[in-house]
Design goal:
The complex is a heterodimer of chains A (428) and B (548). Chain A has 428 residues and is α+β, with helices and mostly antiparallel strands. Chain A has two domains: 279 residues, no CATH class; 123 residues, no CATH class. In chain A, 14% of the residues lie in helices and 20% in strands. Chain A has eight helices and 15 strands. In chain A, the strands form five sheets. In chain A, strands 1-2-4-5-6-7 form a six-stranded antiparallel beta sheet. In chain A, strands 11-10-15 form a three-stranded antiparallel beta sheet. In chain A, β6 and β7 form a beta hairpin. In chain A, α6 crosses α8. Chain A is globular, with a radius of gyration of 21 Å. By secondary structure, chain B is mostly beta strands. Chain B has a 21-stranded parallel beta sheet that branches. The longest helix of chain B is centred in the first third of the chain and has 17 residues. The termini of chain B are far apart. The chains are: A alpha+beta (428), B mainly beta (548).
Chain lengths: 428, 548
C-alpha cells in the first residue's frame, strides 16, 4: 500500500494532541475473563510468547520486544507507536506484533467507503470466552485495533489508499478505554482527543468521484456508539453507562477469513489457535450474520436472505444505539437510543413485534412531515428510517456519526427489505 | 508518566485564574448565601469559595444568576473573544474534568462546530457567565444534538445559552441527578420545521430539576422531560415552541410557576406508545401561566405535530394528572384539552396488532383520573382550529342549522370516547393484552370506576364583562357521552351501535353536570440532588403555590 501526502488534506483542520489523560471515559465493566479452561492451550496458543501486562505501571517510552502491554494498561500515550502493536510502526494494516490476530466482520459499519483493518491482541495466557449474542468476553488486557484507510478506488481495495486513523479499544481492569490516533503524516499517528476534520477527502466509487469532509471522531464521541446506558429503576439507582465494543460478536465473526497461511472460519481458527474457549462444537448452532458487501447483488437474494441481510445491516449500523436490554448481560441497560422504541438487534425476530423495527411507528423525537412512520412496509419512499439513511442533513442523518456520504448499497438493501415486508396497518 | 507530557494551554490559564479566585475570595469564605433572590430557596449549588457573601464578589467569578465559581474551577478559553470557536477548548476541558469539576465557559458569544458529548459525568457543573452572557452558536455545526450527556450523576448545567442546534439543544440520557438552570435553548427567527427538535431534553433520567430556564423556537418541545421519574419543572419560560413544556411517559412530576406563551400548545402531558418506559403518571401542573399559545403548528413531524394551535394545556393518554390554579388566557382553541389516544388513532380494531407489545408493558390509550380545578380561564376559543379537532370545532362552533351548535369552543374539552368504549365493554379484550406487572399497577380496560373519572370543578370564568360579547361562555365540553346506557351516545344506523359524538357543553361555573366529581389530590414530588431535597416537599415548602 502507499501513503498519500495526507498533510495536504489536513490544512484548516485543528488537531490537539493531548497527553496524560487520566479520565475514566470508560466505566467499570466487570469482566469475567476465562479461568484457564482453554483446553486448546495444551497444543500451544498463537499468543504464546506475546507477553502480557505484569500489573506494574507502564511507560510510553519503554523499550520492549513486542506489545507494550503495561503502557496499554495504564498510560494514554501520545503516539500510537508507543504501544508497539505493529512490526512496522508506520504500517498499522499488516504484520501485528506477537499476540495480534487480524479479523473482519461479515457485515460492517459503513464509514464513507473506508477500508478497515482490524486486529485483536490478547495477552499471553489469556483466552476469549464465547458469547452467544453479545460481544465475545474478551479478557482484561485485550486490545482491539481498527485502522481506517480511504482507497483511491473502492473497486480496488488492495490498491492505493490513504491511512487516516487508528482506533484502540483497550480492556483495562477498570473497563474498556477508547483512544483515537490520527495519522497526521505517514510516519506519525498521534493521539487526537478533539478529532480532526479532513476536507476534500476523495475516493472513486463505481466510477464516480466522491469528495467530502472526513471526520475523525473526537475521543468523547466514542461513547456515543460504544456505551449502553442504565435504565434507571428508581430515584436511588445511580448506575453509570458502560463502555463496550460493538463488532466482534460471534455472528459477525462467523465467516471465513484469509489468513497468511490458510483460509478458515474465524471462530474455528481462534479456537484452534488457543484464543477462544466455549465455542459450541456444532458450528451450525452459532448465529451467522450474512456477508454483505458493496458488491452484493440485492436483487438476487431470496426473501429470507434479504431479511437476514437487512437485519445484519441494521444491527451493525444502528443497533449499538437502537437496542434494548434483550441479551445484554447487564440487567436494565440499553443502547442510548433504546428509548426511541426502535430496537433493531439482529437477534430480535421481526415478526415478534414489527413495531420494534419501526413498522408503522411514529417517530418519537423529531420526525419529518413527509414521512409518516419509521418503516412503512411496502413503501420505502414513505419510511423515515430510510430517509435518514439517505440524507446527509445533520438534523436527520443516521447514523449520527461516522459518515458524510450516503451508503448507496445499504440504502438499496433497506429499500428492498421495506418494499418486501408483509403489509401492515400503515401500508397504503 | 511520559516525557511528552505537555500541558494544554487552557489548563495553565485555568490554574492562574483559580489562584486569583482563591485570593479574591479568601478561599472558603462562603457564608452559604448563594446570591439568589430567595424566591425559590434553591442554593445554586455553589457551596464553595468564590463569593464573599458581602456583595463584593468579583464579577469575573460570579454568574449573572449569582453562582460563584469554586476556586478549583476549570476555565475554558478564558481569553476568547466574541466569535471565537471554542469547540476544542471545551472538549478538552470536559474530557479531562475529574469528578466534582466546575467547567466555566467564557463570557461572550462563541462558535461551537460539533456536538459536545459528555459521558458518565459525576457532579459536573457546566456553566457560563449568565443565560444571556454566554452564548454558544451551533449554526453549521456537525452532529445533531448541541450538547449531550450520556449517563451521569448529579449534573448541573447553568448560566449559558445554546443557539441554533441542528437537533436537540441539551440532551441528557440515563442520568441520575440533573439540574438545568438559567439555561437557554434558542432558535431565533421564523418558527420553522428545521428549528431542531427538543430544547432542554432530559430523557430516561431520575431526579430532574429544571428551573429559571428559557426555551424559544423549538420545532418540538422547548422544555421536555421523557421516560423519567421524579421531576420538578418550575419558574421557566417557554416561548414560541410547538410544545412549550412537555412531560412524556414520566412519573412524579411537578410543573409549577412556569410561563408558557406563544407556543402551539403551552403545557403538554403525554403518554406515547412503544417506549421503554411505557407509561407515566402522578403529574401535577399548577400555578402556571399559559398565555396566547396560538402559533401555527410548525413541527416537522412526530407526536407533537398533532397539537392543535391555540392549546393552553393538553393531557393526552396520561392517567393520574392534576391540573389546578393555572391561568389560561387567550388560547384560541381551548384552555385545557383532555384526550385519549383514540382521538389520534381511532382504529380500535387494530390496536392489538399495532400496539400489543406496548399495551403489554402498560401503555394505555385510555385517560383516567384527571382532576382539573381552580383554573382561571380567560378569552378562550377565539379562533379554534387544528386538524386533529376540525370536526369537533365545527360541531361546536358552526351556526345552528348548519350542523353546529353555534357556541364558543369549549374552554375545557374532554373527548370521552375511550371512557365510553370502556364503559360499554368494547375494550374488555384489551385486558388480555396487559402484562402481569402492569395489571398489578392497576392498568385495565374495565368500565370506569369513580377513581378513574375525569373531574373538573371550581374552574373560573375570568372574562371581563367587556369581553363577554365575543366570549359569551367559558364552557366544559364533552365530545362523546360516557354513559353506555344512554342510547343517544350511539349511532344505530348501521345496525350495531357505533359511538357518536353528542357535543355536550355547560358553563364551567354554576351547576355543571359535566365532569362533576372530585379526585384525591396527588402527592408532591421530591427531587434529590447533591444531598438536598427540592420541590414542594423540599426547598419550596414555603412557596405559596405549594399550598394551593
Amino acid at each position: 500500500m502507499k501513503f498519500n501526502e495526507l498533510q495536504k488534506y489536513v490544512c484548516g483542520s485543528v488537531l490537539v494532541f493531548a497527553v496524560s489523560i487520566g479520565l475514566s471515559a470508560c466505566s467499570d465493566s466487570s469482566s469475567s475473563s476465562s479461568e484457564g479452561t482453554g483446553s486448546a492451550s495444551a497444543a500451544g496458543s498463537i499468543n504464546d510468547g506475546a507477553g502480557a501486562p505484569d500489573g506494574s505501571e507502564g511507560s510510553c517510552d519503554a523499550q520492549v520486544e513486542g506489545v507494550n502491554w503495561n503502557a496499554l494498561m495504564t498510560e494514554t500515550c501520545p503516539n500510537l507507536s508507543d504501544y508497539n502493536l505493529f512490526t512496522d510502526s508506520f504500517d498499522p494494516t499488516d504484520n501485528p506484533s506477537a499476540g495480534g490476530v487480524p479479523y473482519d466482520l461479515s457485515t460492517a459499519l459503513f464509514t464513507d467507503y473506508a477500508s478497515k483493518y482490524r486486529f485483536v491482541f490478547v495477552p499471553e495466557g489469556e483466552t476469549v470466552s464465547y458469547t452467544e449474542d453479545e460481544v465475545l468476553d474478551f479478557p482484561v488486557g485485550t486490545v482491539l485495533v481498527k485502522t481506517f484507510a480511504m482507497p483511491e478506488n473502492t473497486s480496488f481495495r488492495d490498491g492505493a489508499e490513504t491511512v487516516i486513523e487508528t482506533r484502540l479499544l483497550i480492556h483495562r481492569d477498570t473497563g474498556w478505554k477508547a483512544l483515537p490516533y490520527y495519522w497526521e503524516s505517514e510516519t506519525a499517528a498521534t493521539l487526537a482527543i478533539t478529532g480532526a476534520d479532513i476536507p476534500n477527502m476523495t475516493t472513486n466509487h463505481n466510477g464516480v468521484d466522491l469528495d467530502f469532509t472526513y471526520q475523525v471522531p473526537k475521543a468523547t464521541s466514542c461513547t456515543s456508539c460504544h456505551s449502553v446506558v442504565p435504565i434507571l429503576q428508581d430515584s436511588d439507582d445511580r448506575r453509570q453507562a458502560i463502555f463496550m465494543p460493538i463488532g466482534p460478536k460471534a455472528r459477525f465473526l462467523n465467516k471465513t477469513f484469509d489468513y497468511a497461511d490458510t483460509s478458515m472460519n474465524q471462530l474455528v481458527y481462534w479456537q484452534e489457535q488457543g484464543l477462544l474457549t466455549g465455542l459450541p462444537a456444532d458450528l451450525s448452532t452459532v448465529a451467522q450474520a450474512p456477508v454483505f458487501s458493496d458488491t452484493t447483488d440485492v436483487s438476487a437474494l431470496t426473501s429470507s436472505e434479504l431479511e437476514d441481510a437487512a437485519k445484519a445491516y441494521l444491527d451493525i449500523n444502528c443497533a449499538h444505539c437502537h437496542r434494548s436490554e434483550l441479551s445484554l448481560p447487564e440487567p436494565n441497560y440499553a443502547g442510548p437510543a433504546g428509548s426511541s422504541g426502535l430496537n433493531v438487534e439482529y437477534n430480535r425476530a421481526y415478526a415478534d413485534n414489527p413495531t420494534k423495527f419501526g413498522t408503522c411507528k411514529v417517530p418519537v423525537a423529531g420526525g419529518h412531515a413527509d414521512y409518516s412512520a419509521d418503516v412503512v412496509p411496502q413503501d420505502s419512499g414513505d419510511s423515515y428510517l430510510l430517509f435518514r439513511m439517505n440524507t446527509n442533513d445533520q438534523r436527520h442523518r443516521m447514523p449520527e456519526l461516522g459518515r458524510a456520504t450516503v451508503h448507496q448499497e445499504g440504502v438499496n438493501l433497506i429499500v428492498a427489505w421495506i418494499d418486501g415486508l408483509p403489509a401492515a396497518s400503515c401500508t397504503p | 508518566m511520559n516525557k511528552h507530557n505537555a500541558k494544554p494551554s487552557w489548563l495553565k490559564k485555568s490554574l492562574c485564574l483559580c489562584l486569583a479566585a482563591a485570593l479574591l475570595s479568601g478561599c472558603g469564605g462562603d457564608d452559604g448565601d448563594d446570591g439568589m433572590n430567595g424566591v425559590d430557596g434553591q442554593d445554586g449549588a455553589a457551596g464553595a469559595a468564590g463569593s464573599d457573601g458581602s456583595g463584593n464578589a468579583n464579577p469575573e467569578f460570579v454568574t449573572t444568576s449569582g453562582f460563584s465559581f469554586p476556586s478549583d474551577s476549570i476555565f475554558v478559553a478564558p481569553e476568547a473573544v466574541d466569535g471565537d470557536n471554542i469547540t476544542n477548548d471545551l472538549l478538552l476541558a470536559l474530557f479531562d474534568a475529574p469528578a466534582g469539576s466546575t467547567v466555566v465557559m467564557p463570557k461572550g458569544s462563541f462558535v461551537i462546530d460539533e456536538t459536545i458529548t459528555v459521558a458518565n459525568a459525576n457532579e459536573l457543573t457546566l456553566t457560563g457567565y449568565g443565560i444571556t452572557d454566554t452564548k454558544l452558536d451551533f449554526t453549521g455545526a456537525t452532529g445533531d444534538d448541541a450538547i449531550r450527556f450520556e449517563g451521569g450523576l448529579d449534573i448541573t448545567v447553568r448560566d449559558f445559552g445554546v443557539y441554533e442546534a441542528n437537533k436537540n439543544g441539551i440532551k441528557v440520557v440515563g442520568a441520575n441527578g440533573v439540574h438545568l438552570t438559567y439555561t437557554a435553548t434558542v432558535w431565533e427567527g421564523d418558527l420553522t420545521a428545521d428549528n431542531g427538535a427538543y430544547g432542554l431534553y432530559p430523557l430516561q433520567s431520575q431526579n430532574i430539576l429544571m428551573e429559571h430556564n428559557y426555551a424559544r423556537g423549538s420545532a418540538d418541545a422547548g422544555i421536555y422531560v421523557g421516560q423519567s421519574n421524579n421531576i420538578i419543572v418550575r419558574n421557566n419560560i417557554a416561548k414560541e415552541n410547538v410544545a412549550g413544556i412537555e412531560i412524556e411517559n414520566s412519573n412524579n412530576a411537578d410543573v409549577y410557576n412556569n410561563l408558557a406563551v406563544g407556543n402551539t400548545g403551552g403545557i403538554l402531558v403525554f403518554d406515547l406508545p412503544g417506549l421503554d418506559q411505557a407509561y407515566g403518571g402522578n403529574v401535577r401542573v399548577f400555578n402556571n401561566e399559559s398565555y396566547a399559545n396560538n402559533a401555527e403548528n410548525f413541527a416537522g413531524g412526530g407526536a407533537v405535530s398533532i397539537v392543535p394551535p391555540g392549546t393552553g394545556i393538553l393531557i393526552f393518554a396520561t392517567s393520574g394528572v392534576e391540573i389546578y390554579n393555572n391561568e389560561l388566557t387567550d388560547n384560541e382553541t381551548s384552555a385545557i384539552e383532555i384526550a385519549s389516544y383514540f382521538l389520534s388513532d381511532p382504529d380500535v380494531a387494530n390496536y392489538a396488532t399495532n400496539y400489543g407489545g406496548t399495551i403489554a408493558n402498560g401503555w394505555s390509550p385510555q385517560i383516567k383520573n384527571v382532576y382539573l380545578h381552580d383554573n382561571v380561564i380567560k378569552r378562550s376559543g377565539a379562533n379554534p382550529r387544528g386538524s386533529l379537532v376540525t370536526d369537533i370545532v365545527n360541531g361546536y362552533t358552526a351556526p345552528v342549522g348548519v350542523g353546529g351548535k353555534g357556541e364558543t369552543m369549549p374552554a375545557i374539552l374532554y373527548g370521552g370516547i375511550g371512557e365510553l368504549l370502556s364503559n360499554a365493554g368494547e375494550l374488555a379484550a384489551f385486558n388480555g393484552l396487559v402484562g402481569a406487572e402492569a395489571q398489578a399497577d392497576g392498568v385495565n380496560y374495565n368500565p370506569y370506576t369513580a377513581d378513574d373519572l375525569i373531574c373538573a370543578n371550581n374552574n373560573i370564568n375570568d372574562n371581563e364583562p367587556a369581553a363577554e360579547t365575543q366570549f359569551p361562555h367559558v364552557n366544559i365540553g364533552l365530545v362523546y357521552g360516557t354513559d353506555p346506557t344512554d342510547l343517544t351516545n350511539f349511532d344505530f344506523s348501521s345496525g350495531s351501535p357505533v359511538p357518536t359524538p353528542t357535543l355536550r357543553s355547560e358553563p364551567v361555573q354554576g351547576n355543571s353536570t359535566l365532569l362533576n366529581c372530585t379526585q384525591d389530590r396527588l402527592a408532591a414530588t421530591e427531587v434529590n440532588f447533591r444531598g438536598k431535597t427540592y420541590g414542594c416537599a423540599g426547598d419550596d415548602l414555603a412557596e405559596p403555590a405549594c399550598s394551593l
